[in-house]
Amino acid sequence: MEKMSGGDLLLRALKDEGVELLFGYPGGAALHIYDAIYRQTDVRHILVRHEQAATHAADGYARVTGKVGSVLVTSGPGATNAITGIATAYMDSIPMVVISGQVPSSKIGEDAFQETDMMGVSRPIVKHSFMIQDPSEIPTVIRKAYYLAASGRPGPVVVDIPKDMTDPNNLYDYVFPEKVSIRSYTPNVKGHGGQIRKAATALLEAKKPVVYVGGGAIAAKGPELVTQLVQQLNVPITSTLMGLGAYPSSDKQFIGMLGMHGTYEANTAMHKSDLILAVGARFDDRVTNALDKFCPEAKIIHIDIDPASISKTIAAHIPIVGSVESVLTDLIKAVGQSKLSLDQDALQAWWDTINEWREKHGLYTKNRFDTSTDMIKPQEVVQAVHKVTQGKALVSTDVGQHQMFAAQYYLFDRPRHWITSGGLGTMGFGIPAAMGAQFADPEATVVCFTGEGSVQMCIQELSTCTQYKLPIKIININNQALGMVRQWQDMNYESRYAETLYEDSLPDFVKLAEAYGHVGIKVTKREELYEKLEECFAMKDRLVFMDIYVDQNEHVYPMQIPLQSVGDMMLSKTERTS
Amino acid sequence: MNKRIISILMENDPGALSRVVGLFSQRGYNIESLNVAPTEDETISRLTLTTIGNDQKIEQITKNLNKIIDVIKLIELSESAYVERELMMIKVKAVGSLREEIKRSVDIFRGQIIDVTPNIYTIQLVGDNEKLTAFIRAVGEAVVLEVVRTGISGISRGDKVLSL
User: Fold this and answer.
1) What is the pLDDT of residues B43-90, one digit of tens each?
2) What's the pTM?
3) How far is CA A447 from the centre of its chain?
4) Got the DSSP string for A262-299?
5) ipTM of this model?
6) B158 to chain A, minimum CA–CA distance in Å?
7) Is B164's Cβ below 8 Å from some Cβ in A?
8) CATH classification (class only), A378-556
9) Beta-carbon separation of A182 and B69 below 8 A
10) Domains within chain B, CATH numbers bracketed
11) Most A CBs within 10 Å: which of B60, B61, B69, as the mutation test of the A interface?
12) For a Cys-Cys bond, which of A219, B55, B139, B151 suits B33, CB 3.0-4.6 Å?
């Protein structure tokens, strides 16, 4: 049997686990591990410029590939800097393993240099965490960590490794367990047969059904099965922010995103529906609006792998715990075997009503924003990028108005192309997540929609992009204000712009991009928008930073009215649903 | 809204308890009492937790507890017939005529005096939560110097067993 140090055990275990990329940043407590990295070639380490970016990059990689993202940081500040990215992954159920260095076990608790209780600090935002107590257990713990991160409802797992556990002077046998089992952990994957038959009956008896998919529908064969079921029944489908791409957005049965900035037709259809089939969605507050006014006539079927997500905010009439893949497979079968069939007249009437809503206030039947002004509108930018990239790009975003415009106007026809921080809403996510996406698919066109606010939260990663020659395209929708906050200030605070303006302190983004060795292009006029974007995307092997000045006064609509139903929205600055 | 008792079998590992307790503060649930000790299998701890909530809340609590990787199995004890016990040690001032009276109360409540000084009795009492509270009221709060309660432990009645 091969003898090796803890550091080598770790790297070997990562290799055997199939890890290709490790996003990280070195430091004292992780030095033995970094030396082990130097001595091997199987696992490629990507040096970021800030640990937050390591977690977001691993997250972007995970969202695009469906594999577990891997992160390595040092103790203390390295570990705490990773926290925002871990919380981001936790909220969006992204599989990730974060390995953190720790001070030597003999010094734990002594307030040693760069000591932080990483197990304690990360506890509420991880699926599970391990601290290595004995170097020989490293391969088993790594196997368990990846198993936990990827199975059931995915999520981040922390492995904290005290420095003495990777001491190069102490050698151990390498034993990589073929399978691991955890006696307390049996992710429930198969749905209850009786419940599934009940769901099929309810679905087929419905007159005004809506399928509502979330991030859980992206997993495994989810998108395929969702599409099959929805098209077989010819029913309308809406998606959460996280579920975009599970069903082709440009298909006529897709009625748009729902929720706070969902389409009129999606939110109204939900509110008026008599049956909601929720697939891998969690009825969060950005979807439901006021819980007591939520979809009063709807019977709710809720499919989720996490029982704690079911009936948490909205009680389900037919709860089904199981993986989307297995439950939908069984549901499609049950629908096929049922003696019932959808009332086609009722369904036609339902579609007629939905199409009227679409015509009246839909985002895609005609432009709902005013293009007669001089300033470029942010919506136009997203539409233009969609056109230039033929809707095929991997798209990451930061957080704010640009994120909502991207969700509304970049119509996603494929899963795993939409990389956004939905649950936590993490500004600074965009660039590093785009890096992770580009590493996941080096040939792909990767777009990062951002704003001049968000982009400055992880701008240092432009340097990482230089080092690894990542040709991502940054679309900075620059409205010279913290747009979403400003919108709320317009709507609820009589336009008192408390700390949402920069007083002429913004950097020259073109020069900044150039300083890092990239290309910067500034756009201020509508006439030059397409042309400059064409120019940008023609530079296949360069990072291009597009600084596009847009109308500061534009708001994101529709917008749900707080404390009201799903269907109560502002449709513009002056129009409200009745 | 009433008292609910949840019995949990969990890994006897460092960090397991903090994950359980952390869940309650994280999700805004309330812990009335909690006690924990290893079982006959030293890799497993048994934890008894008392909380307050309606059915919907208790369902969420048990679902979220089940999600914790260290939690192996749990039941809501108060869902069916069960026996609960709590141990209390109480130090009371006992001088003059009060000494005899307190002794009588201890006998009535079937407690034991486990330590004595000329001015103080230390009393041990086992029973359900209400009985212990009733005893404190019976001896009069004025003379109570110190109260130590273990929190509720419980076990199902009849054939029902919580084990692996």
Assistant:
1) 999 999 999 999 999 999 999 999 999 999 999 999 999 999 999 999
2) 0.96
3) 15
4) --HHHHHHHHH-SEEEEES----HHHHSSGGGS-TT-E
5) 0.92
6) 26
7) yes
8) alpha beta
9) yes
10) 2-79 (3.30.70.260), 83-153 (3.30.70.1150)
11) B69
12) B151
